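Quick sanity check, Actin-like ATPase domain-containing protein:
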Amino acid sequence: MILETLETSFQPRIYNIAERRNYTPNFASSDYETNFVNKGTPLVIDNGSYQCRVGWATDISPRLQFDNLVSKYKDRKLNQSILLVGNDVYTDATAKTNAKSAFDGNVVYNFETMESVLDYIFIKLGINTDKVNHPILMTEPVCNPSHSRKLMSELLFECYRVPSVCYGIDALFSFHFNGLSFDEGGIVISSGHTTTHVIPVLGRGVLGQTKRISYGGLTSTDYMLKLMQLKYPTFPTKMTVNQAQHLVHNHTYVAEDYFSELKEYTDPKKFAEKDRIIQFPYVPPANEKSEEELARAEERRQEQARRLKEQAAKLRHQKLKELENHLEFYMEIKTSKSSMKKAEFIAKLKENRISDEAELDEFIQKTEKSVQRARNKLLGIEEVEIKEEPTFPLVDIPDDQLNEVERKEKKKQIASKSLHETRQRQREAKELARRQQEEEKRMEEQRRQTDFEGWLSELKHNYQNQLDKVKSLKRKKEQLSDRRSHASQLRMKSIANLASDTPQQKRRRKGQDEDTFGMDDNDWAIYKEISREEDAWEEEEELTSLREYETKLLQYDPTFLPEHTFDAKNSVKNSLIFMFTRGVTPPFDPENFAQMHQLHVNVERIRVPEALFQPSILGLDQAGIVETIGEIISRFEDVDARKKMIRSIFVTGGHTQTPGLLKRLEISLGSILPAGSPLQIIHAKDPVLDAWHGAALWSRSSEFQNYYVTVEEYNECGGEYIKEHRFGNVYYKT
């Protein structure tokens, strides 16, 4: 009833899956020689593991923003090597399959690929000089290994001959751009492509107390992909990583209370509102035939049926003719007896494989009946078979008064008489049971009319008892299907004992050999075959009685509806699994080609982002984001420092754009902090670009010139040398 109401009142919206996001290739800059060639303007590179954002320090927004990928392959048609970088990778199918990243997690490890990315950046910016004459400010992750930074410095200084390089943490640059003061303190939550970092800020980033959670946008995409593959193992279309990413970006949200939200998904009405139907592309089947083609096909079928009828009638005529010929042949043999000697007649019978005259008479009688039936069938006459009561004349005659043939016939008649009497008793028992059943129905109908309430109450009571019996039978069946269960082993031993030639006593004395039936797999196979047949018969019998009660309740009890029946409750279509995989509206039709190419994203919408709060969902042995923040705060003994941090909890990174994240953080953190704590959660203006904007803002300040490493310092101190500043990572000083 609920599903029928939903079908009429709620019209679901179907969302199309995106093969990939709208990638637009970056264009080359044409103003380098006029505006930047002689100024030495700093070049800001936000080098993320997902996207790279590049621009001049004086730009309002980054000039280049592309996926940090490189694809190198050989085109066999053109017979030349192709190198594509960034968004250009998605313009060719072969390029997508050969795409590689310079990152392992969020750390650069493949510097050959990184060199291709930097070449792409400088070419797009129009830098056509023999070296790059601009200071470079590049972002890096928290606790970037010194070896990776050393190789990056070596690449920039020795390959591109840049004058100076400076590194900083992207999350702290975003903190700075949003107007938050390092001196006032705070906590930075940076959730990016591969990881989530929680950085306490007191005057500068306290990197010694920073925590990392191995969950980010890439992890959530992989998790969504695995959930969909497990949910739809036979889906006709293969889901790609980009499609799973589309589901994460467009259809997930963070639940305020995860477990309460899960319960809401079990309500069909609320489920229909939350369920997202995702339509995958498909090729529709061929167009249906026109009415003229259907009419011609129907004519062909009728013509074929007419020919088959003619062939059947012809075969019946041939069969009748054959039967008449057989009858005529048997009658000729019968009439030839009068003109032949007995020995000749018997010899003739033997020649035609007839044992004696009695068998000949039996053949003639059967053939006459067959001829009559065939003629009636041709004439369309329906035969009414009249069964004659069988007689057994030889049963009561003693054997010494019978010859050998008659004694054999007597044995047949004795067996036939016994079988006939058994059938007669069965018919009488069935008739008696039928009369008793009719009498019970009459008495029940009489009681229903005189005491309806009492009758209905008793009917409900009997139905409940029968329902409990069926449920108990199903539980027993589940236990017996388990080879190691106690009930299964007892039953197996009972079967073995009954089948044994020397059944053992129920109680065994101490030291007596135990029964070993069931130790062998062959014994288990025999047991399963026996129990399957017995359980199926018993279950069907109990279900038949249950359905009889349900039929009466549906007829006389207005509160008992079709969806309350046992079959409806246990139907696959009414199960939660079916609802989660096929939805509630519109009704699933396996013949509908479009529905076979649809995914239903429902509990996954909250399950995927919930892993940030409960990493154990993914199998990660790590604390969630709220526990991590609580642990970091507890490590600071100064109460004022704690208040400073929770007063400005700053959230940045592309993965923090999931709806509901800030509200969930506020609720969860409020539950672990002391009452009245000055909790304030601040979201970045642009979680994706604010790191670049903050780096560009700092590179325009005079402070920037004091912290970059020049080429002279690099040559003197080596690639691991870096100057300490508030945006820096792990610092090495000479």
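Posting the structure with no commentary besides this: The first helix runs from residue 2 to 9.
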